[in-house]
């Protein structure tokens, strides 16, 4: 007679939160994990650029005249843009500054602007979207019109038109000698103003749905304040959307900063940024192609990696996906 296998029904079943489920999906996405590793590497190099350059005894502003050929239109001496054991990625034509040092310091400038802008845009977009979706009525209608107005603006062309004169006025108002400091502050402010509206609209639509759920109605029946319901009940359910927005907005703000600097209305010499390097490299793209290809390739790699991370995060936290585990 066959024996029946006894099943231990007392064994606890470990529950997993939406965060854990999302992470489990994400970590099995090899492309997303590799892209995350590449992105983390770039961020670490950018924010550790000063100690790295100190250890390597490199100065991004120092000019090495011995590395350029004065009789050959001030082009770098040697092949591949002057790449050598001293200058790992060569030197800049005309001035002889180390490309590697400029590249990682420029990464800090570009990544900082993109990161600060993304965080501010997410914070503002989350709060305004929550308020619009929760209170509805006239509040929602007023905020909706503001969002529609911001989304209708040709943001990039407006930045081109107003960035330079506003940076000059801000420099005078702040009383700083370096115009680039005023430009960085202005870029962060302007990109944030035009960057929060898209997320706010997404959050508003989610809050309109969540507001009718049982846990929110229960909190209201118990006399919970509006602030508690918004920040304690609704906000935790919306963080996955914010993370997705962060991973997708970072490459957008990164390329916007590079494009504005490339066009001469963003960061300017002598402060390094990837856009500044590309702008200076255009004139030498044929005679010294490595000077253009190095920052361009670096920017493409990071933007592609961040986009793939964003796609992986979006797929991992999409509630429509089947739970395979």
Structure description:
The chain is an all-alpha fold. The protein has a single domain (42-62, 98-316), classed as MetI-like fold. The protein is built from 13 helices and 2 strands, in the order H-H-H-E-E-H-H-H-H-H-H-H-H-H-H. It has a two-stranded antiparallel sheet. Helix 4 crosses helix 12, helix 5 runs antiparallel to helix 8 and helix 12 (274-281) packs antiparallel against helix 13 (289-316). Residues 7-13 and 321-325 have low confidence and may be disordered.
Short description, anyone?
The protein has 325 residues and is mainly alpha-helical. It is built from 13 helices and two strands, in the order αααββαααααααααα.
Give me the Rg, rounded: 25 Å
- CATH homologous superfamily grouping: MetI-like
Task: Give the proportion of residues in helices.
Answer: 55-70%
Question: What's the number of structural domains?
Answer: 1
Under the CATH scheme, the architecture is Orthogonal Bundle
Mean pLDDT: 83
Low-confidence stretches at least 5 residues in length (pLDDT < 50)? 7-13, 321-325
């Amino acid at each position: 007679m066959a024996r029946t296998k006894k099943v231990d029904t007392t064994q606890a079943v470990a529950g997993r939160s939406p965060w854990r489920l999302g992470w489990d999906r994400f970590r099995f996405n090899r492309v997303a994990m590799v892209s995350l590793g590449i992105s983390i590497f770039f961020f670490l190099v950018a924010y550790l650029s000063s100690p790295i350059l100190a250890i390597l005894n490199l100065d991004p502003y120092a000019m090495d005249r011995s590395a350029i050929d004065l009789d050959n239109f001030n082009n770098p001496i040697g092949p591949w843009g002057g790449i050598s054991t001293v200058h790992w990625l060569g030197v800049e034509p005309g001035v002889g500054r180390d490309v590697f040092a400029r590249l990682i310091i420029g990464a800090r400038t570009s990544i900082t602007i993109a990161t600060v802008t993304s965080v501010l845009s997410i914070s503002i977009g989350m709060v305004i979207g929550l308020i619009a979706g929760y209170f509805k009525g006239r509040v929602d209608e007023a905020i909706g019109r503001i969002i529609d107005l911001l989304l209708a603006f040709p943001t990039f062309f407006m930045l081109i038109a107003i960035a330079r004169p506003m940076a000059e006025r801000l420099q005078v108002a702040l009383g700083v000698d370096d115009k680039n400091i005023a430009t960085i502050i202005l870029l962060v402010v302007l990109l944030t103003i035009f960057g929060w509206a898209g997320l706010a609209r997404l959050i508003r639509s989610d809050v309109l749905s969540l507001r009718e759920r049982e846990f929110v109605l229960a909190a209201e029946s118990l006399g919970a304040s509006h602030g508690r319901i918004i920040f304690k009940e609704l906000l935790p359910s919306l963080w996955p959307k914010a993370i997705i927005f962060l991973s997708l907005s970072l490459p957008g703000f990164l390329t916007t900063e590079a494009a504005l600097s490339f066009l001469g209305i963003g960061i300017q010499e002598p402060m390094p940024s990837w856009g500044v390097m590309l702008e200076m490299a255009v004139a030498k793209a044929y005679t010294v192609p490595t000077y253009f290809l190095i920052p361009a390739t670096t920017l493409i790699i990071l933007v592609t990696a961040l986009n793939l991370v964003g796609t992986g995060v979006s797929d991992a936290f999409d509630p429509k996906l089947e739970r395979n585990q």
